[in-house]
Amino acid sequence: MTRKPEFYKSPDEVKPDIQSSPQPISQEIMNSLNDRWGSMPDNLWMRGKKILWANSQAEEIWSSERRLRNGRTSIPGKRWRPLNVLHLGREIARVRRGKPERISGKATLELSSLISKGITKVTEDTIDSILHSQSLELEDIGISENIRGGHIVMSDTDALPVWVGGKVTIMLNEKEILIKKKQRNLEIHSEDKS
Question: Could you tell me the pTM of the whole model?
Answer without folding.
Answer: 0.82
